[in-house]
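Progress note, sequence design subtask.
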């Protein structure tokens, strides 16, 4: 009887394994500005050393996924020259000047894909669409949110006396807003549909008879909205970012509808810039990003993943000191009448020497070495720290497939 059962099991057709498709979208932090040169910093922490091991092959070069492929649509900030980079997933699919050429950077896609590659038996396809400097209230605005409209604060400000931040030509400004509204949302949806019309073009392991499954969507965006004091006025007041919560809920509904995946799992990468000690308005924005995941209609298939715990506090402290140096440089070169150095007779050489000594007193050689080891960009790009982006990518993957499926 045991032999008969064994033969039956051998003869039984294997269950179809549809291609697992994951969509990653957002602005500059989804692009990813962490240079590969900061990988070593990951190994300095015993808690993340195993993550670095996963990211590197035997000879220390970035690992190439066995059965995970990527299609990456990106372009300039204005959306011109959009292009597609494709291939087996490895490091280098972060921010790119040329969509088809590696810039030596990673975003969350690298460890997201590595995690999926290790956990899933099916082939995996990541479709990534990301552009820097895009907001949800305008460029990524979902269709069901309606047209971009001025709020009461903007109407009062823009149609009042000329001042800082007020458009010089309102008609031209409104035309530009109309043209930009939803443009990158459309780029995103159109590209996903384009890739899925012929998955084998990007993923050679795709088998049409098995089909594909849109298994998850990751959204990492928010900085442009968070710092937009015109669209989101009333700094420091409760409910300041409620409009963002509403827009994000519309976004989730719309991408599910437009991609024909009504229950598609959706991960919100909650803004983590500034870490766990961020200012009050940053915390308020994080709460607004999290809000859709708490709505009854999204229970069980929309997940908010905090990224603040992945911020490097030690690098952030050094960045604060670097900001003081930049501020001093600005002060030395300023001729503003209210500045004490308005009539300064310091030569350019004397200014450079003063700034050099100021920096040396503020930032120790050890701190400078640590910065070069772990950081490669500005604070709004999570300091360009590969450790931060690696932790984010892994956390996003775990939210979609569950830690129990992960292989050690």
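Output:
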């Amino acid at each position: 009887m045991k032999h008969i059962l064994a033969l039956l099991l051998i003869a039984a057709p294997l269950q179809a394994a549809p291609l697992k498709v994951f969509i990653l979208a957002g602005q500059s932090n989804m692009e990813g500005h962490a240079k590969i040169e900061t990988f070593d910093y990951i190994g300095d922490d015993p808690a993340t050393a195993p993550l670095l091991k996963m990211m590197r092959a035997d000879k220390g070069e970035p690992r190439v996924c066995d059965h995970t492929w990527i299609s990456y649509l990106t372009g300039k900030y204005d959306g011109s020259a959009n292009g597609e980079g494709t291939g087996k997933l490895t490091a280098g699919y972060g921010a790119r000047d040329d969509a088809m050429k590696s810039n030596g950077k990673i975003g969350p896609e690298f460890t997201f894909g590595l995690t999926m590659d290790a956990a899933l038996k099916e082939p995996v396809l990541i479709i990534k669409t990301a552009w820097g400097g895009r907001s949800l209230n305008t460029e990524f605005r979902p269709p069901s949110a309606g047209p971009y409209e001025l709020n009461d604060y903007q109407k009062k400000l823009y149609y009042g006396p000329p001042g800082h931040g007020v458009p010089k030509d309102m008609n031209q400004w409104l035309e530009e807003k109309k043209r930009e509204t939803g443009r990158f949302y459309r780029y995103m949806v159109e590209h996903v549909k384009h890739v899925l019309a012929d998955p084998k073009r990007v993923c050679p392991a795709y088998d049409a008879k098995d089909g594909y499954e849109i298994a998850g969507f990751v959204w990492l965006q928010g900085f442009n909205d968070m710092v937009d004091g015109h669209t989101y006025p009333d700094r420091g007041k409760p409910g300041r970012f409620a409009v963002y919560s509403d827009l994000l809920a519309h976004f989730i509904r719309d991408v599910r509808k437009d991609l024909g995946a009504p229950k598609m799992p959706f991960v919100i990468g909650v803004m983590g810039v500034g870490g766990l000690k961020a200012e009050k308005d940053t915390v308020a924005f994080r709460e607004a990003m999290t809000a859709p995941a708490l709505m009854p209609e999204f229970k069980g298939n929309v997940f908010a993943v905090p990224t603040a715990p992945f911020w490097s506090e030690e690098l952030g402290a050094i960045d604060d000191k670097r900001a003081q140096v930049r501020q001093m440089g600005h002060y030395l070169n300023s001729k503003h009448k209210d500045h004490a150095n308005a009539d300064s007779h310091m030569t350019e050489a004397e200014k450079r020497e003063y700034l050099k000594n100021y920096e040396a007193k503020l930032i120790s050689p050890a701190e400078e070495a640590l910065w070069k080891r772990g950081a490669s960009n500005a604070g709004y790009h999570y300091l360009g720290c590969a450790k931060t982006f690696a932790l984010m990518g892994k956390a996003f993957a775990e939210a979609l497939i569950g830690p129990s499926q992960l292989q050690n």
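The beta strands are 19-26, 34-35, 68-74, 83-88, 105-106, 124-130, 212-220, 266-270, 302-306. Work on this subtask will continue into the next period as scheduled.
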